[in-house]
Amino acid sequence: MSTGRLQTVGRDKCRLHMVTWNVATAEPPEDVASLLQLDVQPPTDLYVIGLQEVNATPVRFISDLLGEDSWSHIFMDTLAPRGFVKVTSIRMQGLLLLIFAKQIHLPYIRKIQTTYTRTGIFGYWGNKGGVSVRFSFYGHMVCFLNCHLAAHMNYALQRVDEFEYILESQDFDISDTPHILDHKAVFCLGDLNFRISDHGLHFIRSSINSGRLHLLWSRDQLTMMKKNEPFLQEFEEGPLNFSPTYKFDRNSDTYDSSPLKTWLGFNGKKRKPAWTDRILWRIKPKTLLSEDEEDDNDEKASICTEDGIDEYPLHVSQDKYTSDMSYGVSDHKPVIATFTVELRKHFDTPLVHISPLGVWCGDHDALLSYTIQEDFMSSTWDWIGLYKVGFRSAFDYETFVWVREDDLPEINEVIKISVDKDGIPLLGGQYTLGYYSTNMQSIVGLSASFHILESKNAVLEGLVPENINGLNK
In the chain, is it the N or the C terminus that has fewer CB atoms within a 10 Å radius of its CB? Predict the structure, then answer.
């Protein structure tokens, strides 16, 4: 029996924290705690971090491909001890999009896919464009898009065209949501590069310094473009009650003070402050399903009853939209948005149940069991990882075992697998087991945390001091 149909009568609230930052090829600061607002209440469930202009020189980019880049490292190092796991990421040259989730949510984040679109140099270069991540969150289809659009004051129309092209051209191998706008909720963040038109530098700066930001809103190019572009009108944005986030002198709160430069007789000019860095969202309009679409798929982008009421509603409300002026490594300031996502879950049972069996210790082989609780596209390439509590990503395992290599198991069949003692940490500690689905590219089952005993061999290996008559030697 499918667990995907109506299981939960009430609604649940999840808190989403989003950051967009053009880092202008800078290395990350030592501390990103205030950027992530780690101690906020109610606590965050999902972090979505979109960066632009991450250092992408050929040598650095190839180095990052071989391992995590420095920005990913600092976010993982900061969030992992607090129980957040990197769900996925995608990078296209300087564009980087990172998704983190509280560990408890991992089994309910499924069907992860990523893609990208180049718009730089006639679509052949990835210094501009968009990268996106889509997944099912408790059965609700959501998509996050990180964009870096064309620069300079006079290219507002090109920015709109690029944004629309990205939305229309990106596709996914998912029948219900093949395109970005098919998703129930879409969040767009990035350096959209829209400027403040008509007003001069002095007027803009005096308006900012006097706190009269409302005098600039009507000439914000994105606000102006929304009046004539129906697809932009479908996106919502909070009020711009924070100072423009571009362009600053690095390591300061001072807007661009660079001297006027001349080059080959052409006059240079200072950049006018602008709200280039933005976070938008869109909820898919409700639609009734045809009879052919009334199948037993538990992960529809939108499901409505005959009277047009959404059977599995998802509501997004913005709690905060601001910038963090304390960071100065870039000529942009980061922009933060937090949301409350209220939803009715399509399901609340993991696809796989996993448990350790007996005592685990590096002195002997260990045993685990797993049970497929609902039919899904399992594969003999699926694996079960042993993770130390506080792990950083699905691939941050201590050891792993392949699932049963012959016939795939039946639903509710209990499968037992042995784990070689050589892969079990000698020092022991708190660990958890996770079932990774290759087809869904996600962990679809997690065990409760359990304790691995310290191995007797830990002393022989010199990992712990030898205790003789109560003294460490």
Answer: N
